[in-house]
Amino acid sequence: MNAPQKNSTPITVEVALGDRTYEILIGRDVLGSLGTRIARLRPGARTAIVTDRTVAKTWLKRTEEVLDQAGIAHASVIVGEGENSKTYAGLQQVCEALIAARIERNDLVIALGGGVIGDLAGFSASLLRRGVDFVQVPTSLLAQVDSSVGGKTGINSPQGKNLIGTFHQPVLVLADTAVLDTLSPRQFRAGYAEVAKYGALGDEAFFTWLEANHAELFSGGAAREHAVATSCRAKAAIVARDERETGERALLNLGHTFGHALEAATGFSERLFHGEGVAIGMVLAAEFSAERGMMPASDAQRLAKHLADVGLPTRLQDIAGFAQEGLADADALMALMAQDKKVKRGELTFILMEGIGRAVIANKVEPAPVRDFLQRKLAQT
Ligand SMILES: NC(=O)c1ccc[n+]([C@@H]2O[C@H](COP(=O)([O-])OP(=O)(O)OC[C@H]3O[C@@H](n4cnc5c(N)ncnc54)[C@H](O)[C@@H]3O)[C@@H](O)[C@H]2O)c1
Ligand SMILES: [Zn+2]
After folding, report:
1. 273 and which of 52, 70, 190, 204 could share a cystine (Cβ 3.0–4.6 Å)?
2. Domain 188-379: assigned CATH number
């Protein structure tokens, strides 16, 4: 991993949302063009870079340099890494720092970091002075293919994840694929689960391509840009058709109903990263679909094999500490799923599959067969 690669012409993906349309630029060293792009987009604007401690160590200096080169004033706001910053306290810290940096209505907030920073900085920008614009520079694979696309911003409540938030679209997204070279292999793999999700939910040809090209994607070759661009295009197309998640956007939750319950059951800890929960959740959704006769069992096996090939967990038994500490029982997992915000009036909404590339929204899934299915999965060795 991390062999130096040559830079390439960026790929542009447009997110078509009327007068809020914006571009995602994907490529090695697109970060180098941040200053000139901002100067063109918003002449004279001041900026504030919101980032976390880890990303600040590796990428803040470079970001400040490219802004300096374009003569753009910048302040920086550094928060602690991880979900602990996606809180009321984190929001207060960022908003107060943005006010102190004299960020006004025509200025720009720059979110430099993973999904935590994108959500926190975007939310802060949406509230500051009743809304200032922001630019996303997503630095994790998950943020590049998922959280930086679609405009959902927010923080966690002590009562649940992402319960406080707004829709606030960025004005520009720069997804620099070279920045991913400093991400830990485990974080990279977790983000990859969301990449594979786009193939699994709506694009069998992309899934087949991933089966053949995943090694180059991990090592940082041109396959990485293609995969990020294809993922962004898939999400952008769905978001453009259903920005507020009244219908089709729910397909993006493939693997997430099971996945969130597993994350909650492991206390949102290091035991299971979000993408790892999604990987196991997708396999469970596929196996449950196969059991119901909706899709061939061979498709569920194909999905599990690919995720396992890249080193992702695919079974409940793969969760760290499963043998020693166990996991919640089936009833507890059902209760956690019932708390999920995708549940409407007690009925479970699941994203199920009819095949690789063909996910469907199943609105009225009865709890009993799901509980029975989970009980059998928990009992496996
Ligand atoms: N808004 C949305 O639509 C949306 C969608 C999916 C997920 N999310 C949110 O995104 C968050 C998860 O995002 P994440 O996985 O990026 O988490 P994260 O932002 O916590 O980043 C993961 C870790 O990687 C580190 N990191 C990030 N980029 C790095 C780099 N280039 N080099 C070295 N280290 C780096 C971070 O410091 C952090 O420790 C969750 O809070 C989730 O709710 C939001
Ligand atoms: Zn996700």
Report:
1. 190
2. 1.20.1090.10
